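Team,

Forwarding the record for the chain on the shared tracking sheet. I've put the sequence and predicted structure together so nobody has to dig through attachments.
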Amino acid sequence: MRSGASRLLLVPALLLVLVPTGAGLLGTLLPAFGLLPTLGRAEFGLGPWRELFADPGLGRAVLLTLASGVGSTLLASLLALAIAATLHGRPGERRLRALLPVLLAVPHAAAAVGFAFLVAPSGLLVRLLAPLLGLDRPPGLATVQDPWAVALTLALALREAPFLLLVILAAADRAGLDHRLAAARSLGRPPVAAWLEVALPALWPSLRLPVLAVLAYGLSAIEAALVLGPTAPPTLAILVLRWTSDPDLDRRLLASAGALLLLALGLLLILAGRLLEALLAGLRRVPLALAAAVAVIGRPAAVLVPAVALVELVLLVAWSVASSWRFPALLPSGPDFTAWRAALPLLGEVTPTTALLGAATVALALPATIAALEAPRSGAATSLLWLPLLLPQLAFVFGLQVLLVRLDLAERTAGLLLAHGVMVLPYVWLVLRGPWERLDGRLRAAARCLGAGPLATLARVVLPLLARPVLAAAAIGFSVSVAQYLVTLAAGGGRFPTLATETMALVAGGDRRRIGTAALMLALLPLLVTALALWLPAMLERGRGSARPSAPSQLLGKGANKLSTSSSVKLSPAAPPPSTPS
């Protein structure tokens, strides 16, 4: 395929991401300055901004947003880097790699509910400490929805650390740092110090955008903030959400100004991060005290991060079937499935909708991503695929809602699918980029020499070899779709209830059994799909007798075998066998 034509393969993915995101930004920008023709507002002005800055809770909300967003990003980055530096090349790294898909499959809303069950004044953590502290009733401490957003910060950090760790491990696999690390250790540097001095600078270009994505999410977190965040005042994202759902439609203008303020905060923090990065660029040697501190943090963190996630799931199960669980008892008094019987009719209706929406979103995003990966690399163009993750959702989601209304796609399946695709495609791209880059180019070249065209090479060589990462990307994309709460509300207008929207609706009710039941269903659906994605390749390989193709001619079939006999181009038998990513 000619280079110019092959670059067109990137167009579907760019259109799916940039058109809705750009239109959403515009749909947020104009109302912030008084322009919203659908409400009859056609006069440019600064009224929304004056009203915004006059709000008495704005200053506190901004401080809470910065504290939780920046704090969770720094803590998640520290945990991920400490774990990667401490476990590099050790057996614990392999075990943690196997757990990462499970940790990433749990939606933020379910994780937040489980974390609340863990750290609440009557939560499991206080129950464990009650005998030591002599407590017979929950303490009067605000460990959930505390005024300084500590619970929210910790929950976000523990939830985002596995995502950053996945990015670090994938970038390390691509970089092939073992020889350089061995050289640094041979010069007397401790293993953790060698990793920080050699690996981190090499990996940072691949980590920059994911860290910024974590920051953007932390600033605009909705689900976790509704469960764990302060309420009087809340974070800026929750304040904007309240204004958006206000019966007074003029508050939409105020909400747009608040969303732009959130975007401005994110851009200022990105600029500050870039300046800090420039200041630290000249640092060549890491102080041994800092390396020792990272090593001290790394091993407990490698246990703590997955342990908290697994305990959260256990607590969801326990509360969903608890008949009575009075403080300070460590276990419920007995099982009771009343909450399940009450919830099953509703969950039975929304679970198929959630599953079908997730599957349809993956069917939209996955082919567009694979086509983009098959296009010649263009760093600037492919970086744009990260845009929905680098912007606070509130900065473009409600503007996207305005676009869908004007296109008559609001509260329709097509509009909801488009909105979910915008959020899913960047994650699918992230998972597949590394395996696509690591695939040995000689396999493609050999397939072309055997007469296969681009589509045949993709279908019969590339995809069979990359079946595992493709299925993993599909599972993660499905999980991201299932977790969408704000996007579903904005694009669906309440006509498409999903497990995420129903879970958040139940959170406001305060019934722990019903909340646990809905949150458990929300977590189980992506976990089941993730388990299927991990199990299916192993079963297929076992069915083939573990005989993996060693040459493109075997993948291309009999026609390729005939072509190979007449081709003058052969793979050299002295060359090392082509590498096939796991």
